[in-house]
Amino acid sequence: MAAKRELLDVLSTDARESVDDLARQLDVDPETVEQLIAELEAEGVIHGYQAVIDWDSINDSHVSAFVELNVELDRETGYEEIADRIVKFPTVQSLRLVSGDYDFAIEVTGESMQSVSRFISEQIAPIPEVTQTVTHFIMDTYKDGGMEFGDRDRDDRLSVSP
Amino acid sequence: MRIADRVRSVPESGIRKFFELAEERDDVISLGVGEPDFSAPWAARTAAIDSLERGRTSYTSNLGKRELREYIAEDVSRWGLEYSPDEEILVTTGASEAVDLALRAFVNPGDTVAVHEPSYISYVPGVRFAGGEPLGVATYAEDDFVLTVESLQKSGAADADVLILCYPNNPTGAVMNERELSAVADFCVDNDILVIADEIYAALTYGREHVSIATLPGMRERTIVINGFSKAFAMTGLRLGYAMGPPAGIDAMNRVHQYTMLSAPTTAQFAAIEALRSCGDAVEEMRSAYNRRRRFVLSRFSEMGLDCFEARGAFYAFPEPGGDDEAFAEDLLESQGVAVVPGSVFGEGGRGHLRVSYATGMRDLKEAMNRMETFLTDR
Ligand SMILES: Cc1ncc(COP(=O)(O)O)c(C=O)c1O
């Protein structure tokens, strides 16, 4: 179990570690690593492996927004049902039920502000249970997936020291 | 210029040469660094910034801020160490100052100070500056670099006045368990030897807890325990350490400290308070990262057929390629651009070994191991 937890710690910072390198770092054999990963995937603990990308650093149109969503539940419809409908849109990157002033926090991406706005007004707002949306366009990203996007930390240590 | 004999008698450190060689090129991956690659936890850094913004830039009391001494007392209790913040803890400018103070406070001219080798490079010069006579006590690869009573006896340490003990060890990464320490403790009690225990790597052990010699029977009254923030909290540049011991010992050290240093850096003391108050998780994360790198490096060494005992402390591995360690390190740097420190720099007992620091990011570590493997195959 400890190995499983540590495996997740490593993969969550670098999913591209090879099985052999993972085995060396966790002091288990490569077969064990493969088996643990297979288990974690089968159990739905690991859902996938993605690169953390600073989209602003390439000249490509990429717009993201956080959307606050308020909903009104009724006897037939709960949060789950509403979420099931929203997650199906490929534009929706993440969907979370949150505590506080609103119910859902959604992250959406699109090619332009218009396309994102249109998506919200045409696909999300009309859902019968949705009572309110507030869209926050993302202006700049400083950190994502646990990675800082600013200047890479310089190593200013002396190259050899006692 | 007129230079005192005491200073003239101390040669330049062997580390300097490798530093200069490594600085000559810009493609070097250095495994020769004796400090963390992490920065101090952000909360500790902001506490330092806050203190500056509030204008807290005066001296503190000689012993260090009272609040800091209280946090230190609480923190070290996890190793069974009990010291009163009032008169048994002295905050210093790095563990380095604490070692120097202890030597000046407890060593009379001509006294013998036993230093196990290989060891941190500052002890022998420190003994000389204090007017003492260093006595090397060998530790061996076949004992996993643990200090043994046989070795103490053989080198004549029974007549020593002081022993400097450093576990977890720089440069070997060795640790000592309670049974092994007990033997050394009994030897020190029997021969009335004062112990300066440099435990700066105490928080960085893997797979077992650190044991302090000061907790063993008869040792508290003859031991000064030294620790600091440089390694565990990645705060090397903030220069903060501390010494703990019986009131008479701390008072003696403080007598030197109050005239030569007044007080340890105030800004660093604010950072250290916050470090002890809230940065335990950050330390644990760094420790886990070191442990993964340690296993990685040891496993790569074994794949390359490079002999290495299982180091369980600090962030060093101490492999034994055999032959002339200095030539090996120079060739490795020259042909592969990987810097390590030859073991002989740390004393006779280090000959034939290399100190490999894994306080380096995983990516560089992987590349460095590949280059070392190439080097060994081509040789
Ligand atoms: C064993 C040992 N003691 C003391 C020190 C110095 O520590 P500080 O930065 O607290 O002066 C070091 C630093 O490399 C060390 O390795």
Which oligomeric form is depicted?
heterodimer
Uncertain ranges of chain A: none
Q: Flag low-confidence runs of chain B.
A: none
What is the domain tally of chain A?
Answer: 2
Structural class of chain B: alpha/beta
- What is the terminal-to-terminal distance of chain A? 38 Å
Strand order of the largest sheet of chain A: 2-3-1-4
Helical stretch tally of chain A: 5
CATH architecture of the largest domain in chain B: 3-Layer(aba) Sandwich
The general outline of chain A is extended
Distance between the termini of chain B: 46 Å
Bound molecules: pyridoxal-5'-phosphate
Superfamily at the CATH H level of the largest domain in chain B?
Type I PLP-dependent aspartate aminotransferase-like (Major domain)
Give the beta-strand count of chain A: 6
Determine and state the CATH class of the largest domain in chain A: Alpha Beta
Estimated radius of gyration of chain A: 21 Å
Question: Biggest β-sheet of chain B: count, sense, barrel?
Answer: 7 strands, mixed
CATH level-1 class of the largest domain in chain B: Alpha Beta
CA-atom Rg of chain B in angstroms = 20 Å
Structure write-up:
The complex is a heterodimer of chains A (about 160) and B (about 375). Chain A has about 160 residues and is α+β, with helices and mostly antiparallel strands. Chain A folds into two domains: about 1-40, Arc Repressor Mutant, subunit A, CATH 1.10.10; about 55-140, Lrp/AsnC effector binding domain/regulation of amino acid metabolism (RAM) domain (Alpha-Beta Plaits), CATH 3.30.70.920. Helices cover about 35% and strands about 20% of the residues of chain A. Chain A has a four-stranded antiparallel sheet with strand order 2-3-1-4. In chain A, strand 5 (about 145) and strand 6 form a beta hairpin. The two termini of chain A are about 40 Å apart. By secondary structure, chain B is α/β, with parallel strands linked by helices. Chain B folds into two domains: about 5-40 and about 280-379, Aspartate Aminotransferase, domain 1 (Alpha-Beta Complex), CATH 3.90.1150.10; about 45-280, Type I PLP-dependent aspartate aminotransferase-like (Major domain) (Aspartate Aminotransferase, domain 2, 3-Layer(aba) Sandwich). Chain B is about 40% helix and about 10% strand. Chain B has helices at about 5-10, 15-25, 40-55, 65-75, 95-105, 125-130, 150-155, 180-190, 245-260, 265-280, 280-305, 325-335, 360-379, and strands spanning about 30, 90, 110-115, 135-140, 160-165, 195-200, 225-230, 240-245, 315, 340, 340, 355. In chain B, the strands form three sheets. Chain B has a seven-stranded mixed sheet, sandwiched between helices. In chain B, helix 3 (about 40-55) crosses helix 10, helix 4 (about 65-75) packs parallel to helix 10 (about 265-280) and helix 11 (about 280-305) packs parallel to helix 13 (about 360-379). Chain B is globular. The model of chain B has no long low-confidence stretch (mean pLDDT about 95). At the A-B interface, helix 1 and helix 2 of A face helix 2 and helix 11 of B. Bound molecules: pyridoxal-5'-phosphate. Pyridoxal-5'-phosphate (PLP) binds near residues 34, 95, 96, 200 and 228 of chain B. Pyridoxal-5'-phosphate binds near residues 96, 198 and 200 of chain B.
